[in-house]
Design brief:
By secondary structure, the protein is an all-alpha fold. It has one domain: Heme Oxygenase, Chain A (Up-down Bundle).
Amino acid sequence: MLAARCERGSAQARILLGVGGVELATPSQPIALALREATKGVHERLGRALPLANPELTLDRYRVVVEAYYGFYAPLEARLAVAAAKSDGVVPMRGREKLWRLRQDLHALGSTDGRIDALPRCTWVPEISTVARALGCLYVIEGATLGGRIVARAVGEHLGLGPSNGACFFEGYGPATGAMWRSFLHGLKACARSRDEAVEAAVDTFAALERWLSAQGVLR
């Protein structure tokens, strides 16, 4: 029983939306290493505080967590879309949008369009004024997509959810998730000369997320 508890705690500590396993594909390029080191503390703290790998997670509680994510991603993704449109393809947003996945999951969990549209939105998402800041923010979001596969397995086991009935967001890009993560890391070289900006944006994104999830009452 103690071993099972330790294993579950280790899994939870690897989850942030759920970010987990980011180290698996992180190359030894300075920008990626700097991003990982700068965000390691809050990453692990949020992983321990989120209930997503807990076998006692209920469907109602899961819905509240997904609603909180929606309220964070709605304003953040809007800012990323503007930055991507001005970046001549350097900020890789096409095909990486997540908001529609969250909306699909909420519909599957019984929410109406009216309820979703009325959800509170985070008002302190970070500024994304440069390409470097956009890529720093995306480091957090894409890392979360990579680690979301851990969450997908957990909620599949505990709640019977999958991509078609409430866990599309956590399923990420399916079998292509690893390749998409590696592609993103390769593109980080575009902000190598503005590493501090990218790191600051990643830290700001994590801080905003932690503050938001706490305000929404989803952290333990």
